[in-house]
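Lecture 7 notes: from sequence to structure.
We start with the chain below.
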Amino acid sequence: MNDLEFQKLEQMAKDSGMSVPTFCKKKAQGARMSSPKIDREGAFEIARQLRAIGNNVNQLSKRANEGKAIPSEELQDVQKELHALWQQFNLAIQK
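Predicted structure tokens for the same chain:
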């Protein structure tokens, strides 16, 4: 294998989120390989936003369990954040 071929192999493995040996093993076993629809940075950003929303939901749940009222505006804000994140996710997977 020459350098150019190995670079192409490295890129295909990277695009699949695998090491070169793992990628080669999967290909040799006949696995169907496809590139992820969301890049690594995009996945990390979506995960970060989900954690932030999860923290907000946990805080609201704690207040509710303490018998405190939760303003509907706060619930609507969380719903809007989830909807915006869902839209972002859908756009990312359609690329």
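Points to note: Residues 1-35 form one domain. The chain has two domains: 1-35, 40-94.
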